[in-house]
Amino acid sequence: MPQVREALRSLEAAVEQPRFVPAASTRQFTLAANDFTTMVLASPLLKILGLEAPAIDLIIKPVTRIDLAEQIDLGRIDVAIGVFSDPPSRFRTSLLFEYDDVLIVGGKRKLGRIDNAALARMPLVVVSFGGEQEGAIGGFISERGLARRSEMYDRAALERALSESDRPPRIAVSLPHFLALPALLADSELAAIVPRPLARAFEREHAITACELPYATTPVEVRLLWHERIEGEPSHDWLHDILRRATADLRRGR
């Protein structure tokens, strides 16, 4: 019996969760996010880290060009940020914020209110992280049962709005990322359909003007996604909490 009791104590010590102290931790967390969510999230997140956990480091990997489900399954990514459709049961999710689409143009242009006819005449720029040739179906790419959004605008709403127009919508440029948009729109006739929070960020940093689309787009949920095996682990619970706090203004619609 003494040997059994000692073995049980050793087992309990091995599986006991260590106490996590953010202010003293030197951990490194790996996140997966696209450039849009990184742009609207990074500044408030780094402010929180600077106040609460100055020695914690972040690695942010792109959600594109990797097998996201495999990386989460293997523990190489701690949490993914994106738009997901019916994730498998081994994953857990939590809402960060919602958004709809708006139109942006170069800051020198003053469009005012536009209608469907005016929109149909515009050469449009959109962002797509993968095409049909890469297995995208309905704007989503599926890997190992995890479907993530690849088409970063509401194509169906655009096509419905212009279905009675003399001309179909013209997608003049399709990009794999958002960062080139301000340069493309400057001194051009192009217009881009983008998430509303990104349009606000661009307006603060670049010569960009945002205006409402002449049709409604379906609100999109940006969510955290992680593996069930880390559910309840103190350091990961804290990471999820600071990500929610960093997006509190986005949930309030600011």
Automatic annotation (TrEMBL):
InterPro entries linked to this entry: LysR-type_TF, LysR_subst-bd
Name the UniProt record assigns to this protein: LysR substrate-binding domain-containing protein
Residues covered by the LysR substrate-binding domain: 146-246
Species of the source: Bradyrhizobium barranii subsp. apii
Keywords, alphabetical: DNA-binding, Transcription, Transcription regulation
GO BP terms: regulation of DNA-templated transcription
GO MF, one annotated term: DNA binding
Entry-linked Pfam families: LysR_substrate (PF03466)
Family: Belongs to the LysR transcriptional regulatory family.
